[in-house]
């Protein structure tokens, strides 16, 4: 059960720059990065003329549907429509719903790994409460263990998720369908997640090299780590300054009215 803390909701919401960009949870296998990034590179090709969408891989998603807006959920991937590709011309470090005009992702992808992380439980209910229209769970290896199907697509209807039948599944509000196919791609054959049109025709991923994809993944991870480290340092400095201010107040000194060391006696 999800409980919202009214006090937390009344506190000022932080800006995206104040928030960590991920939860530092490592992925369990290469495909958790590779397959969502293939979906992203495909969107770059088929929506290259559009600037009103944003697709993120392993990015912190901040919201007000839980107990604390500073605690994110980090989907394997999500897609938002009606937002800028670049926020004010810059790359996002995280996605805060309140900083995006209240736009909630229309599509969320979770990939189940050896260590299950509530894809069919708490996350299922949280995404519904948040208002995510399509919730997709991809479970290629452990679906029998979990008593589910390898690919399940849910649509939000009446406040709850309804499983969509067939495969691929067409998502008219997004203008895309999603399904699976085993294909030879860049010298390897494996099952992949693929976008498709309303006839079921697959939008093939662009022919970039596997090495390029992996390099881009590593670069993105380094950027997220560097940004998160900078944020941690800034937060630590802020906490230290607050402790000093509290100490000065305990001595009867107003930290906001300290004498200027540069002023003449």
TrEMBL record:
Pfam families: Uma2 (PF05685). Residues 44-170 form the Putative restriction endonuclease domain. Residues 211-236 have a biased composition (Basic and acidic residues). InterPro entries: Nuclease_put_TT1808, Restrct_endonuc-II-like, Uma2. CDD domains: DUF820-like. Residues 1-30, 211-240 are annotated as: Disordered. This is Putative restriction endonuclease domain-containing protein. It comes from Prochlorothrix hollandica PCC 9006 = CALU 1027. The lineage of its organism: Bacteria, Bacillati, Cyanobacteriota, Cyanophyceae, Prochlorotrichales.
């Amino acid at each position: 059960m999800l409980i919202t803390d009214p006090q937390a909701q009344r506190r000022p919401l932080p800006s995206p720059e104040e928030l960590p960009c991920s939860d530092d949870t490592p992925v369990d296998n290469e495909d958790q990065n590779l397959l969502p990034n293939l979906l992203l590179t495909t969107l770059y090709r088929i929506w290259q003329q559009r600037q009103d969408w944003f697709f993120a891989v392993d990015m912190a998603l901040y919201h007000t549907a839980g107990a604390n807006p500073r605690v994110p959920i980090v989907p394997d991937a999500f897609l938002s429509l009606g937002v800028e590709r670049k926020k004010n011309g810059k790359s996002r470090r995280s996605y805060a719903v309140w900083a995006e005009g209240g736009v909630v992702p229309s599509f969320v992808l979770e990939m189940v790994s050896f260590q299950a992380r509530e894809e069919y439980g708490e996350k299922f209910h949280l995404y519904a409460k948040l208002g995510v229209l399509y919730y997709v769970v991809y479970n290629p290896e452990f679906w029998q263990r979990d008593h589910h199907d390898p690919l399940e697509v849910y649509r939000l209807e009446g406040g709850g998720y309804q499983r969509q039948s067939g495969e691929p599944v067409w998502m008219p509000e997004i203008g895309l369908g999603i399904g699976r196919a085993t294909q030879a791609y860049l010298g390897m054959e494996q099952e992949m997640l693929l976008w498709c049109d309303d006839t079921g025709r697959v939008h093939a991923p662009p022919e970039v090299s596997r090495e390029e994809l992996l390099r881009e993944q590593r670069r993105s991870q380094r950027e997220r780590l560097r940004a998160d480290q900078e944020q941690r340092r800034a937060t630590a400095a802020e906490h230290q300054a607050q402790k000093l201010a509290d100490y000065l107040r305990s001595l009867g000194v107003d930290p906001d009215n300290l004498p200027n060391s540069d002023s003449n006696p």
